Amino acid sequence: MDLTLWQYQFRIIMLGDSTVGKSSMLKRYTEDQFLECINQTVGVDFFVHFLEVEPGVRVKLQFWDTAGQERFRSVTRSYYRNSVGGLLVFDLGNRDSFNHLKQWYDEVCERVHPYSVLFVVVGHKADRANGGERAVDRAEAEKLASQLGAPYIEASSKTGHNVKEAFDLLTRRVYQGLKSGEVQVRDGWDGVKTSGPTMKSLQRVKLNEPAEEKKSCAC
Asked: Which Gene3D superfamilies does this UniProt record tie to the protein (predicted)?
C-alpha cells in the first residue's frame, strides 16, 4: 500500500481529562497494541493512520493527542482551530472525567470559530465498567452526547472493543459532512486537506466569502 496516496486529510483532536485513556486508544487503533503502563502525554503527541471510507476514497488521519493536565492547556488549545473532528473521551469509572466533557466541548467551540468541528463521545475503559466499576450510566452518557449533537460509543483499549469503530465513526461522519456541505474545505484552514482530482468536486471557500457566515462546530 502506497502511504503517499490519499484523497483527503482530516485532523482529529483527542479531548478529555488526564488518564482517561486517549493515548491508549490511539495506540490500539494505529498499532493494535495495548500497554498496561503508558507515559502521560506531555503537550501534544501525533499519530497517523489511513482509512478507506468508500471504494477509491482514502483518508489520511492525523491525530493530535492532547495532554489532559491543566498546566498544558495553553499548548493544547492552540491545536483546536485546525481540527475538523474531536473524540471527547471520558473514563466510565471516573465520574469527574464525565462531568468535565462539556467544558472540553465548550473550549473547542469557543476557539474553532468560524470553522466546523464534528464530535464523537467515547465512554472508555468499558472492560472495567463491565466488571462493576461503572460510575456513569449509559443512558446518562447518551443524553449528554445527544445534547452535544454527537453519537455515543463505549470502548476498551485493553480488549480492543469498539476502538476501531469509534475512530471510524468519526472519520465517516466528517466525510459525510464534506459530501453534504456541513464541512467545507477552506483556504487558510488545515482541518481538511484535499489531494488530486477530488479537489474539483469540492467548492473551496475563501475566508472573505459570504459562505463564511455559516458558523458551526456541531455545538
From this structure: P-loop containing nucleotide triphosphate hydrolases
Do 93 and 20 touch, CB atoms closer than 8 A? no
Domains annotated for the chain, with CATH where assigned, are: 8-213 (3.40.50.300)
How many Cβ atoms sit within 10 Å of the Cβ of residue 8? Answer: 25
Q: What is the pTM of this model?
A: 0.83
Tell me the three state secondary structure of residue 57.
strand
Local structure of 25: helix, strand or coil: helix
Amino acid at residue number 200: K
Write the pLDDT tens digit of every residue in 17-71. Answer: 988 999 999 999 999 998 876 555 445 678 899 999 999 999 999 999 876 444 4
> For the residues of 63-100, what is the DSSP string, one character each?
EEEE--SGGGHHHHGGGTTT-SEEEEEEETT-HHHHHT
* Contact assessment for residue 16 and residue 88, using Cβ atoms and an 8 Å cutoff: yes
